[in-house]
Amino acid sequence: MKEKTLEIDRACFFKAFTEWFVVLQFKGCIMKIIPAIDVINGRCVRLFKGDYNFQKDYLPSPFEVAKKIEQAGFSDLHLIDLEGAKEGRVVNWPVIEQITQNTKLAVEVGGGVRAKDEVARLLALGVQRIMLGSLALQNPEILKDLLVAFGSEKIMVDIGWKDGGVYYHGWQEKADKEFEQVLKELLALGVNRILLTDVDKDGALQGPNFGLYERVGRDFPELLVTASGGISSKSDLRRLKNSGVEAVV
C-alpha cells in the first residue's frame, strides 16, 4: 500500500509540475519566475502555511526535480532547507551540492544560514544568492559584515509576514519590531533584496496577499521584492507584476 501511495504521489507531483510550466510560461510576463523546492531529510516536501505538523512528502528527489526545472527552460531555483531553518544551521549540504554541481541553474538557498563561514561555503559551491532570516533580523551587525564581505547582490533577507508581524526561525518566532521598522532598518544597512512571504498563504494555493506587495512597492520602492505564498494562476502573476515585484516564487 505504501509503495502504491508513493507512485500516486510521484504521478501527481509531475502532473502538477507540468501544469505549472504551462501556467508560468505565458507571454507578456517580464517578472523572473523562480520554481521552488523545500527540503527535509533530503526529500522534497511542502508545508501548509509554514506548519511543520502539516508536511506532505514527494517521492522525486530534489535533484530529479531540479533537472526537470532546468529541462523545462527555467534558469533559476529557489531552495529552502527546512530542517536547517528549525535547527539553526544548514543541514542538507549534499542536496545543495548535487544540484549546484550538476545543473546550470542559478540557485538561491535559505534555511538555517547563521554564520559567515556557511555563506562562504555556499557561495563556493556555486550558490548564486543566500537568503538570511533569523541572522538578519537578530544580528544586524553580522548582516552588515556579510553585505560588505560578499556584496548586496549575494544576500537576500527572508521575511515571513503574518497579521502585520515579522516572523523568523522557520516562521516559528515573532520579531519584536513592526514590519515597516524592519524594512527601514534593512535599507539603512544596505539590503536591497527581500523575499517576502505571507505565512498564511504559503502552501495554500489560494492567491497571494496582493495588498501587502502593493504597499511595500509603494512605500519602499528601493527594495527589490520577491513574492512568495499562495500564487496559483496566471492572473495572480499578472497582478503581482503590476504591483512592482521583481520576481515570484
What do these coordinates show?
The structure is a single chain. The protein is an alpha/beta fold. It has a single domain (2-248), classed as Aldolase class I (TIM Barrel, Alpha-Beta Barrel). It is 42% helix and 25% strand. Strands 1, 2, 3, 4, 5, 6, 7, 8, 9, 10, 11, 12 and 13 form a 13-stranded mixed beta sheet that branches. Strand 2 (36-40) and strand 3 form a beta hairpin. The longest helix is centred in the N-terminal third of the chain and has 23 residues, at 2-24. The protein starts with a helix and ends with a strand. The model is unreliable at 1-28 (pLDDT under 50). Pathway: Amino-acid biosynthesis; L-histidine biosynthesis; L-histidine from 5-phospho-alpha-D-ribose 1-diphosphate: step 4/9. It comes from bacterium (Candidatus Gribaldobacteria) CG_4_8_14_3_um_filter_42_11. It catalyses: 1-(5-phospho-beta-D-ribosyl)-5-[(5-phospho-beta-D-ribosylamino)methylideneamino]imidazole-4-carboxamide = 5-[(5-phospho-1-deoxy-D-ribulos-1-ylimino)methylamino]-1-(5-phospho-beta-D-ribosyl)imidazole-4-carboxamide. Keywords: Amino-acid biosynthesis, Cytoplasm, Histidine biosynthesis, Isomerase.
